[in-house]
Amino acid sequence: MNLTLDLTEPELLELRQRTNATDTAGAVARAAREFLQTCRLRELTSMGGQLDYDENAYRELDAAELEQPPSPPGGQEGSEDRNRPIGRHPV
Q: For the segment 50-59, what is each residue's pLDDT rounded down to a tens digit?
């Protein structure tokens, strides 16, 4: 897609420096993507106080997940490591 931008040389130079891009097109593309990402993050941040959730449902789901038996590593049935707690290594 072709696009014409009206930016000064100092602005283009700063874009290349801040994005670590070697060419102007790459710098502008990266700056635009980062701008969009920043906008999305701002939207998510602003929703922080507006979210409503059922804490009991969360706790019930968490408890149900903890009650499930652990899957054997690598999907192998009968593995000796099956009952080993996660995050612990045999001594």
A: 766 677 777 8
